[in-house]
Amino acid sequence: MTTAVPAVVTVTDDTFDQLVLRSARPVLVEFWAPWCGPCRQLAPVLEQIAHEEADRLTIVKLNTDENPATMIACNVLAAPTLQLYRDGELVKEMVGARPKRRLMQELEDVLPHAGQTD
Q1: Which is catalytic among the residues 7, 9, 33, 36?
Q2: Phi-psi region for residue 87, left (φ > 0), alpha (ψ -120 to 50) or beta?
Q3: What's this model's pTM, rounded to 2 decimal places?
Q4: Active-site residue 74, yes or no?
Q5: Residue 97 and residue 41 in contact, taking contact as beta carbons nearer than 8 Å
Q6: Confidence of residue 110 (pLDDT cuts 50, 70, 90)
C-alpha cells in the first residue's frame, strides 16, 4: 500500500480564512511547531484520522512559528492545540497530544454522522 498525497493540508495566515472559516465541512486545525515533541507524536494520528474520516472532516495544520497572526487571532497559547471549526465557528478546543481513540471520542459529539449532511 502506498500513500500518495498527505491527507492533512497545511494552512497559513493567508489561507486560514478560505480553507478553515469558509469551509462547508467541519475542519480540525492543529496548531503545531517544528520544535514540539507532542506535535510530532500527534502527526501520524492526524494523518490516519484524515484518511479514515475524509467524508466527515477536513484536517489542516498551521505552523505557529511561521504564522503568528492566526495563532494570536485564535488565542492559541500552547502547541499542540486542536481547534474544530464548523460553519466558521470554533466549536471545540483541545490542548495537548492524545491517542487516536481518545481524540475520536472527543470529536464524536461535534462531527456529523456518516451520511448526515448536517
Answers
A1: 36
A2: left
A3: 0.90
A4: no
A5: yes
A6: confident
47: region left, alpha or beta (phi > 0 left; psi from -120 to 50 alpha): alpha
- 40-90 confidence digits (pLDDT tens): 999 999 999 999 999 999 999 999 999 999 999 999 999 999 999 999 999
Mean pLDDT over all residues of the chain? 91
Q: Which of 11, 19, 29, 39 is catalytic?
A: 39
**Contact in structure between 51 and 39 (CB atoms under 8 Å):** no
Question: Strand 81-86's sheet: what is its strand order?
Answer: 9-11, 58-63, 27-32, 81-86, 89-95
Known catalytic residue: 39? Answer: yes
User: Which grid coordinates are listed for 49?
Assistant: 484520522
Cα–Cα distance measured from residue 26 to residue 79, given in angstroms and rounded to the nearest whole number = 21
C-alpha–C-alpha distance, residues 45 and 50, integer Å: 9
* Rounded Cα–Cα distance for residues 84 and 28 (Å): 4
